[in-house]
Amino acid sequence: MTNLDDRLARLTDPLSSLLRHAIAISGEVGEEYDEPLEARVDEAWQAALGEAGFSKAEGYVRRAIGLASELGEVQRAVVEVLAHVPGLALNEWPIYTAAWLRRRWLGIDPPGLLFADVDYEGSSAPLIHVLRELLRTDHDDEARRLITEHRLAERLDLLVDLSLADLDIEVIDMSELIENATLELAELEPSESVAAWTVPVAERLLVSFAQPFAIGERPHGEIPELIARMALTGLLAAGVTLEPRHDALLRLGWGDFEALALRSIAAIPEERREAAVLAALERLLFANYRVRVSTMLLRKFPMVEVARYALGQLMEIDNPAGALELFDRLTIKHPSLAEVVAEHRATMPEVPKLALASVQTELSFDDLDHVQRRQLEIANERYGSQVMTAEAILNQTEDEGDGETIMPSFLELRTIVGPDGEPRYDAWLYNVDSGTIFAAGTEDVVAEVIQFGVESDDAGLRIALPPMLEDVPQKKAKRAGAKKPAVKKAAAKKKPAAKKAAKKTPAAKKAAAKKKPAAKKKPVAKKAAAKKAAAKKKPAAKKKPAAAKKAAAKKKPAAKKKPAAKKKPAAAKKKPAAKKKPAAKKKR
After folding, report:
1. Measuring CA to CA, which residue among 448, 526, 464 is closest to residue 287?
2. What is the longest distance spanned by two Cα atoms in the chain?
3. Cβ(455)–Cβ(447) under 8 Å?
4. What are the angstrom distances between the C-alpha of 565 and each of 74, 215, 568?
């Protein structure tokens, strides 16, 4: 008889049989979404837990979960059985989904800080209970305060617990809390006393993510970036020698975390260093990030294979030409990189020489000729699939835009010329981060701008166009219809003009991403938009397919493939964070 059989035998039928059946059928759930099976699993749990007196709780991760002392005798007996069975999707019930939390809840395992009683507003309750209630009632700031008031050693444990229990507690935007803890760790002097509480955190993460995935026990996939970086920083603070298994914790960033990234790389023995860096680069979501971080770390660590990897990403980033210039400068400092850069240059397409001749803003219908009006109409249709005349587009007011059309206040027309000074391309830029580029004087689309990134089937244009779309000095932008200066021929080496859309709001967030009808889309990293002039209403933001999205109607941790119309995963449903407040994140 197994331990499970022994525990089930302590219950009476029909409860024992119903619970055995629910546990067994839950074990049949696999990686692929199977709607009939999910329905049978749900039915089995309703029968078993209903027999024990439980009722479904609304809210998924926000569902109410009472104190262990409030459980009835039969309910406690059921939870004691479930406390030793991981991987059960119980996040629609007033029971913790993570088996390790169920054991702490009942006192089977040491409670840890999460289940330690705290005094709050005149009463005493476990910290997790207080945090969950605060988050359920949208008191996120107060929840953060309760976490940050703990000393660093305790905070590390709490942050890891909260990160792992993503189906049981609505994790407030903890990025700032984790980043702050990481930076505090980075300032500590290595010592054995620090090792006593940082090494166990790293070990716990490594062990947890080495185990086969079980719903509710941890997030799906690799160790999340922020807690992995925090754990590795803890090992650096402990002064321990990094072992091969620790390399999996390496996460790379810039800004506030540049020095820490370089310190982490230096701590990895040289014979493992390049492989660890390449693996960490692969974890970065966007090619822009990978190239940016690579050029940053290559200044100190001239690793040839890292340079080769980053050069292979150039055609996926926003400004390949600018990045290649950085590599050229790196070869001056590190001649060992010259050969791999030269090899890459030999494979590059021919890049046309272009120059920015003029920028027209505040366009009116009368400013445009027939071809330009048609270009604007085509761009608008490609952007939001709406057919409108150029006059209707330009006559829209700030309040009329629905996020699916080009807004005239975020519109500019650029003329791009070749070395002979003759126009080559008409570039329409709009809604802060989007654009459509035509062969000059025609209705032929040669490239598009999607969330600041140029996409074109012409590899040479893909390299040549981005510098033409960057911000331009204020004096260069001209009101349409004003007298244009004579077009000058491109100089041999002209500083890239910067992109500026007239009268745009400072874009803390991206505006609408362009819809591209046929060409393949790739995720493009976000770039901070340049300062814009007047404060005007931005078009509604559109999302580009790319980075990991947290907000699904009901989140499941397992990577199950489901029919597109089906949003309800049985094995792990998670309501998106209501009123999620974006924290001011540090540069990564």
Report:
1. 526
2. 93
3. yes
4. 39, 23, 9
